[in-house]
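seq as requested:
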Amino acid sequence: MNYNNLLEDRKIQVWVLCIVIALGLIFLKDLNPTTLDSNFGIEFIGGVRIPVTLEKSVDSDTMALMVDTIKQRINKYGLSQAVVRPLGSNQIIVEIPRADSSAIKSIEDLLREQGHFQAIIDGREAVSGSDIISGSVGGAANEQITKSDQGVGWELGFAVDKAGAEKFSKTALGKPNYPVYMFLDRPSDAVVLVDEAGLTQFSALNKQALDDALKREGDPITLVYYSEFAAKKDLVFNKTVIVASKKIIDSNSSIYSQLLSAGFKAENSTKRLLLKPDEELIPRTYTTEKGVLVVSEWKAIGLLSGPVLSPSLANGLVSQFYQVTGSGSGATAKEQEDSARKELKSLKVVISSGKLPVSTIVGSSYSIASSLSTQFVSYSFIALFAAALVVAGLIVVRYRRIKLAIPIILVNFSEVVILFSIIGGFGTLDLSAMAGIITLIGTGVDDQIIITDEVLRKKHKADGGEEEITAIERVKRAFSIIMTNASVVIVAMLPLLLSGIVEITGFALATILGVLIGVFITRPAFGVIIEKLYPRA
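C-alpha cells:
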C-alpha cells in the first residue's frame, strides 16, 4: 500500500486533523503536555456541595418539582454535571464539579432566586412568570448586550401565552407613558430600610417616582428611612420581610440589634432580614420625554427595568412579545460588560426554568472529596485499551488476517480520543459520559466489520446471476447500512438526551456524538483504508 497516496485522500486528511486537534484539547490546553486538561466530574476529582434549606417542609410532589427546577437552572447556566437530591422534606443538596469562586457564587445566586417574575402597571400585575412561554426566553434574536455613552446594558426578550397577552392588554388600557415595572422576586409584605442620604436625588416632588415603583394593589412595599425608624418601629415589626444594606450592622448597630430582637434573621424564613450590598439600595432612574422621573432599576427589591408604555400598547393592542432591560455595573467598560453578560445569563436561566414553589435559604458551600478518585480515570483508559485488544483478537480470528486488526484498532481508538476530547473539553466527563465512550468501542467495531465484510465479498448476486463490483461500490453499500444504524441509535437516544435527567444525559450525549464522529469522520477514513488495502478484492 502506498501511504503517500493514502495521505492525499481528503477523508484521511480530515481524520488525521481531528486526531491532532483532539490530542491538543486533551493535553495542550494549559501548555503542559504531561497533564490531562479535560473537565472531569465529581466522581473523579471531587466538587463543591451547597446545602439549600426550604422555608417549610413540603410533600414529595413539591420536592420533586423543586429538584427538577434547580437541575434545569444549573444545566442552563452551563454546568453539564450537577447532582441535585432531596434530603428529608425541607432540604436539598446540590453538588457541582470543582469551579472557581465566581462560578460558585453565581450558582448560589441562582439557587437563592425563587424565580417569580411580575410586570406591574400602576400597581396592578399585568404579566406573571406563569404567562411566559419558557422556550421563548432569549435566543439569538431576543438577547443582546448594548453599549452607549451611558454605559453597558442588556436586553432580554420573551413571549407570553395568549391569556397573558390579553391580561397585559386590559391592564395597560388607557395608560400611555405609564412605567411598566418588571420585577424578579419582588418581596411581599416588605419594608425597605434606607439611609436618606443615599436618596438625595429624590426631592419631595420626585418621591412620587419611588412610591410608584413600590406600589402594588394589596401588597405595597413600605419605604422607611433610618431617621424614621423609632417613629415607625411598630409598622416595621409587623412586616415579614425587611430589606436593608449590609452596612446596617456597623453603621446602625442599634437598629440592627432591635431587628434581631424582633426575630428578623437571614436564616429565619418567617421573619426574614435581607441584607443587600449598599449599591443595590440606590435606585437608578431616567427622565421620560414628558419630564417625568421614573425608577428604571432597583436591585434591592428585584426591580429589573421600568420602560414606559407606548401609546400602541395602551389602546387595547394585544401583543405577546415583551422585553426586559438592565445595565451592568463596574468602574471600567470591561467590568460593566462582564456584569451585563452575567446578569443577562442569570435572568434568562431563572425566567426560562420557572418559579420555585418554595423560597430557599442557601447555606455555606464546602468541598467534597471524589468518590472514585482520579485513579479511576487511569483504570478507564486501561479498560478501553484492553477492550480494543480483545476486539482486535476477535477480528484476527474472524478474518485470519493480522493486518486487518491494525486499522480497526487504530480507527476505533481514534474515535475514543476524539469523543473524549469533545466531552472533556466542552462538557464534563462523568460516569454516564464515560459509559457512552466505552459503548463507542462496540458500535465502532460493528460498523467496521460491516465495511470489511462488504469489501471482502468478491461477488454480489443480482437478478439471479453474479456481478463483479469494485471496492468503492462495496463501501457505499456498507455505508447505506451504517447510516440506517446510526439514525436508529440517534433516534433512540434523543428521548434520554431531552429528558432533563442529568444522570443519563451524559450517556445519551456521548452515544450520539460518538455515532456522528463515526459516520462523518472515522468510518469514511476506514473505508478509504480498506479500499487501499484490498483494491482488487
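Residues 411 and 533 are 15 Å apart (CA to CA).
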